[in-house]
Amino acid sequence: MGASGEPAPARLCRRHRRGLILILSFIRPPFFLTLHDGAVTFHLREFAFGQSYVMDDLALFFKRFFLLAAVIVLLMSAEFAGRLEPGISEFYSLILFALSGMMFAASANDFPMLFVSIELITVTFYVLTSFQRHRLASLEAGVKYLILGALASAFLVYGIALIYGRRAR
User: How far is 153 from 121, CA to CA, in rounded Å?
Assistant: First the structure.
């Protein structure tokens, strides 16, 4: 009990309400409840692109996670940027392309959308892996990643085709 007669956790929550709401928005359970303008509202799923793109709480959680990861990567790449003087804008744009692929993957509601978003992520990662073209090890890693990624994409497309073939009537 404090001087005002309120328990300490109540004072803490009242004082740091915005910070707690921000933290809890990343870790809250998916009850489809949203705090909007101080009122708790029921959040429904929203669809786009012929229901191949969905916006729900799980997609929002992963989008926030990917955004946080991208901010951390961009902050960590600041010291690496000194080695990439001529191509720093391309480096940052590739990171943003990979982030957009991750955002689409978080909201994918069917296999074609998921496949296209995963391919957007992997193609940008191929380029980022071999970004330092003057280093032989970087080019070798990029080519190896490209070959393994093409093999993985072929298996993924084959699996998607099997699932679609099995579902057809």
Answer: 12
Q: Nearest to residue 160, comparing CAs of 117, 115, 121, 122?
A: 115
The β-bridge relationship of strands 53-55 and 39-42 is unpaired
| DSSP alpha helix (H) spans, the chain | 8-15, 17-27, 57-76, 88-106, 111-129, 136-167
123 alpha carbon, distance to own chain's centre:
16
Contact 70, 99 (CB under 8 A): yes
Q: At what angle do helices 57-76 and 88-106 cross, to 10 degrees?
A: 160
What does the alpha-carbon distance between residue 2 and residue 75 come to, in Å, rounded to a whole number? Answer: 41
Please list, in sequence order, all residues whose beta carbon lies within 8 angstroms of the beta carbon of residue 34, skipping any fewer than 6 positions away: 40, 41, 42, 43
Q: Between the CA of residue 119 and those of 37, 92, 125, 157, what are the distances in Å?
A: 38, 19, 10, 11
Task: Supply the pTM of this predicted model.
Answer: 0.69
| Secondary structure of residue 55 in the 3-state scheme | strand
Structure tokens at 161: 């085709």
One-letter amino acid identity for 52?
S
pLDDT, tens only, 121-169: 999 999 988 888 788 898 899 999 999 999 999 999 999 999 988 887 5
